[in-house]
Amino acid sequence: xxxxxxxxxFTQIHETEKKVSGRKIRIGIIGTGWIAGMHAEEYLKMDxxxxxxxxxxxxxxxxxxADQFGIKNCRIYDSDLAxxxxxxxxxxxxxxxxxxxxxxxxxxxxxxxxxxxxxKPFTVTLDEAIEVMRAEKRSGKILTIGFQPRMSENMRMIKxxxxxxxxxxxxxxxxxxxxxxxxxxxxxxxxxxKNTGGIGAVGDIGTYSxxxxxxxxxxxKPLTVSGYTSSFFGKDPDYYPGHPEYADKxxxxxxxxxxxxxxxxxxxxxxxxxxxxxxxxxxALILGTxxxxxxxSTDCWNGDFGAPLTIYKTLCGEEIxxxxxxxxxxxxxxxxxxxxVDSIRFxxxxxxxxxxxxxxxxxxxxxxxxxxxxxxxxxxxxEV
Length: 384
Ligand SMILES: NC(=O)c1ccc[n+]([C@@H]2O[C@H](COP(=O)([O-])OP(=O)(O)OC[C@H]3O[C@@H](n4cnc5c(N)ncnc54)[C@H](O)[C@@H]3O)[C@@H](O)[C@H]2O)c1
Description:
The protein is of the alpha/beta class and 384 residues long. Helices cover 34% and strands 22% of the residues. It has helices spanning 3-6, 9-13, 15-21, 34-44, 61-69, 80-86, 102-111, 126-139, 153-163, 201-204, 206-216, 246-249, 332-346, 354-373, and strands at residues 25-30, 49-55, 75-77, 92-95, 115-119, 143-146, 170-174, 222-230, 255-262, 266-273, 284-288, 292-295, 309-315, 318-324, 377-378.
């Protein structure tokens, strides 16, 4: 399937407008590590986009990245701030730094009037997320968070089913999935160190798991959180053959759980894992007064379940189950970046708005704070 065929109808309608307006969208990439490579590959496929600037704080890394991806005539900077201060005609940036640099980089870019595609998780703490949203408000620019599963038809189907009323009033949602062995260290330790990753599994893949369920039920606000985090695997030198020193560097969670009361009398039962002695923490469930939805266990990042959704109902006194056929998801990463570019070009809304993901972030922040205190806490999301 050609890439254009994978775009949604909105995008295709505007193909002609793109040709008329002529000018290419000018993009910068901040942080030229692993995920930046995927951003570069997708932007390079778009003939109406040019990558004009790259920044990384590690000397020589951004230039090496430009050479590796064949990005010609782009300017190279040694920090995000140098990039946004010097690039006067930039349309947007992809922020691909490790988690602890999400907030400062996003605030710098927005304060310089630049539209932002911010990789997930939104931030490390709730307070940081609020500061970024204040910068978004001051700037009037687009801020979208990098959740490619949002572009999956199967993920969208979950929301459609819930919003259709087929399940009745939703009162309980349970997160599942996670990994048996999957602490992300293939490219170094930026995910596992406190001063770079900031949060572990709870933010890295927990944020996707939360988005899938909370998005479906309309992102109700959290009221209280009782959270738990642990790091038994991450701190074990035997976990890392050839790299036992990683155990000393491990400063985040590799497993997290939470019991969350949400507005609208909904309970969220959450668990997520980078490592555990189990193949899955289960399927995700949505329970309503008229029906239930089972979402097969997922790795939580690529929008795929590998098996159909199942709906459970009672019909004429009979307990019935039916399957929702899976649809092809297409190239989600391309779609996520294309949606960002189109929102810049046509003045559209962000695909994954901060107003939703701040609630996700408040739950993550609540789990981390409650776990540290060893008791349930109340959650308040400050005004932006
Ligand atoms: N959407 C996805 O599927 C997906 C997948 C992997 C990672 N991610 C997210 O992407 C982010 C980056 O992950 P990664 O694996 O590429 O990390 P990485 O450590 O490989 O790369 C991050 C880069 O950012 C640079 N950097 C840090 N602060 C900077 C600053 N102020 N200015 C310029 N450069 C700076 C670092 O030097 C490093 O080169 C993480 O937040 C992660 O959660 C998303």
